[in-house]
Predict the structure of ABC transporter permease.
Amino acid sequence: MSDPSTASIVSTPGAHPTDSAAPATAGQPQSNEKPRGLLADAWRDLRRKPLFWISATLILIFLLMAAFPALFAPGDAVNGSLSRSLDKPSANGWFGYDVQGRDVYARVIYGARASVVVAVLSVLGTLLIGGTMGIISGYRGGWVDALLSRIADVFFGLPFVLGAIVILTTFNGSGSGNSKAQIMGLVIASLIVLSWPVVMRLMRSSVLATKEADYIVAARALGAGTGRIILKHLLPNCLAPLLVYGTIMVGSFIGAEATLSFLGVGLKSPVVSWGIMISDGQQFVRVAPGLVFFPAAFLVTAVLSFVMLGESVREALDPKLR
């Protein structure tokens, strides 16, 4: 509360100084609410969006399926009995059985693990490598920026599907004898190698728009080092675009992994994934359409869930869309 002026004290003799200031502030409500940051404002907006809750619930279900598949399908997803080959859906097998007599429902549930693990690890690697290169390129500038930008242009010019086919055919061809971990590692590496330039460009543009801000200039004038400026000031203010893009990219990588597995150059048996199931079931789509429909339905739902979540986060973080 501000101090009353001398005139107000003289005009109301005998009154206490605080009495004259009371009418001025009586109609103004006093709020104890603290100012919110960017993430707090975004969370407040997200809580009001039904699309966010729908997509977050579906994603949580898929994550639980990937982490604890036995909770959803106690059956065997790898071994089967030929006596049940191409059996129709029943109480024992909700989605039916494939040509080798394996439970399709169990394979769909267990297939979420490979798809989600590959997508999440690929996104983390892409954000780490591309984000680091983008920060260095945008903050340093000069010949460093030019060199890293030209390297990114070389990788950016590679067609995604063709580049992935070349990489995986070279290191994961027929007769390679790779284990499950090696097969998944090669798919993850191929996705990272072909995707990091996009993240690098996104982070570079954010750094270029932020590094000349007043608080960055003030920190530099006060003697803050490069590491402190990047970690304490630049990085927190440049993460919003990467958070949105990373969320959408998880859904894109789930679809990319399924595409590569369908083409026979991605994940391979004994790994269970939705792309492998669609590839194996396409030959019997007329006899048993569920072999293609059920894994495809789970695949589309997972991709759309991450895309919808990314769109909701983008709208919450962008002040122009509020």
Observations:
- The CA atoms of residues 142 and 148 lie 10 Å apart.
- The chain has a mean pLDDT of 80.
